[in-house]
Amino acid sequence: MELDMMLSEHFSLYELTRSETAARKGIDNTPTQRLAGKLIELCQVILEPIREQFGRPYRPNSGYRSPALNVEVGGSKNSQHCRAEAVDIEIAGVSNFKLAEWIRNNLVFDQLILECYTPGIPNSGWVHVSYRAGQNRGRVMTYSGGKYLSGLVA
């Protein structure tokens, strides 16, 4: 699988699998063909509509994580990143709270988590959003101060 392969109009396999930790530790972060198909769906259903809405390019902070990489970065053992169902994003010049609000109000998703956001600091934290074919829970949370809170809390 070629890393420059485009998964959608604006997002490549490289962007959804790149990891400084994987590169530094020599961890293979290449998804299977089946998982690459799930990344294509994630791009089409989540990432492309966000790009269209905000009208500016952005690069996901974290997309697919192999199980070995997930352990190395301290991810949850049930992380949807390992199933090619989740992405962490930020868009320069857009408040992460406003980004999370737009996703909540406009997209179908499994989980939406506003992570490590500090009110009054628009670019603090990041937005985690996941999508899975079939049943999506539409679960919305804020992770702050080591706790998960229901809904978007600023």
Question: What is the first-to-last residue Cα distance?
Answer: 41 Å
Task: Look at the structure and give the mean pLDDT.
Answer: 95
Helix content: 25-40%
Which segments are poorly predicted (pLDDT under 50) over 5 or more consecutive residues? none
By secondary-structure content and strand pairing, the structural class works out as: alpha+beta
Count of distinct strands = 5
The succession of helices and strands, N to C, reads HHHHEHEEEE
The fraction of residues assigned to DSSP E strands is 15-25%
Our count of helices gives: 5
Outline:
globular
Reading side by side through the largest sheet, how are the strands ordered? Answer: 1-3-2-4-5
Q: C-alpha Rg, in Å?
A: 15 Å
- What does the main sheet amount to? 5 strands, mixed
Strands, helices and their partners?
Elements: H1 13-17, H2 20-25, H3 33-54, H4 67-72, E1 86-89, H5 96-106, E2 111-115, E3 126-130, E4 139-144, E5 147-150
Parallel strand pairs: 2-4
Antiparallel strand pairs: 1-3, 2-3, 4-5
